[in-house]
Amino acid sequence: MSAPVVIYEPFRAGLPPLGSYLRALWSRRSFIAEFSRSELREQNYGSVFGQLWLILNPLLLSGVYFLLIYIIGGHSDSTRYGHLTASLFLFYLVSNSLSGGVKSITAGQRLILNTAFPRIMLPISASVIALFKFIPTLAVFLVMRSVLGLPFSWQMLWAAPVIVIALFMGLGMAILISCINVYFRDIASFLPYLTRSLLYLSPILYQATDLSAKLKSVEIANPIFYLLDAWSQVMVYAKAPDLFSLAHSLIWALFIFLVGTYFFLSRERDFAVRL
Amino acid sequence: MISLSASNSLNSIHAKNGLAVSVQNVGLTYTTSIDKRPTLKARLKSLGRGKKHTRVVQALNEVNLDVHYGTVLGVIGSNGAGKSSLMRVISGIVPPSKGRVEVHGSVSTLLALGVGFNPSMTGRANVYLGGLAAGMSRAEIDQQFTAIAEFSELGDAIDAPMRTYSSGMYARLAFSVAATVQPDILIVDEALSTGDAHFKEKSLNRIKELRSADRALILVSHAMATIEDVCNEVAWLHKGKLMARGNPADVIKQYQEFTNAGKSAAANEDV
Question: Global pTM?
């Protein structure tokens, strides 16, 4: 008899056995990929430009915000436009993950009630979708920055760790908020205001150096402020990011991810009866 | 007859009549919110007024049930008897609040049809989506794809988006995907009533094909005729308690006397 024995006992708030949980998650990786791909395809289904919207969307968005800062600021140059576009694209990596993740559990009701699988898969695929949306914008930006005549250098390879941190941050936020939304459904309605505030509180429409030292010290509480600053240093100025910015964003990302994951894993066996 | 079960004799690792599922003193009570959508606003509004937001539902009470390999267990009972709750506990979707469940082997559930399907994708894409959701690997689905498509009798429609399907076509494809999984323990919850009479017959035959000495089947249904035909054991649940268990004919008779449903045509008619 080599059949695996699984035992189900009363739910206690606490982590499930992590080893077998991770193995179960890993064995579902092709489902995560397929699930994300079909969700992504559905979002632009039936529109005239179809998948082209993945590129059109960010381009139009940066155009609109450029108009805004041009009117308000009264002046502009190519560096400023490059900064705005680059920051906006990375910001949307985090915020798409957040807004896609918020309803991932509540919308996955049928799946959750009828199949046993690691529930964390659902917010993970929200982050995967956000990544799928981010990749074409990165290509668009690389073309754009050569047109704008921004400098190139090897320091731009710092983009890789910054993207990883951003991805991690978005994933942690998606996991945390999807879990909160099971218990308080109005978080989903509240979220647009949260992401909008994050957008204005982060160095996107302005540059980090524009802020006073006092304001900047308050921005320590903003998880993505220094992440976006580091990103701009790398992608617009082709410089290495300062260590503080990297450390700040990494610590925030780890913190959100760990808190979110702990909260999620210790609660997920309760989801089926809460939906 | 197209056969989906090529690997029937492949995994005979289970001792004949070995224990497949052991349900020991299982109770399931859960608190669920009274509001359909629990909101922060509702919470804040009733703060300090002592209003209750949750109610306690007793779905299962002291249920003891052993299922051995080679058994086809039918589970019957009126609506709200706890049948689906018991299936969810056995398959690990909901943890029990009392007692213990031991599962010896891999479990596959067919609790609802078309789980994981995305209506705007083609039937072909959904075969993969549904199969992966059910825990199959991509290679397994590749291998079984022709059989699934043939079994569903969809023909060329397999490459059309599923939102263009009739409900019968949808159900047929969903059943075909689900019936391909080859678990040690298969749990089917009222999923046999798919499509027209011809397909219903076909899916019933498929379930019969799946009966084997090294597999345990648990079948939830309101169709007494089917239960009596397919199962070799029946368990009757009522209000979360196990009322009787044993020979299909006997238990079904007790159940029907209890509910006074008698042998009216409606009770037997459908799967």
Answer: 0.85
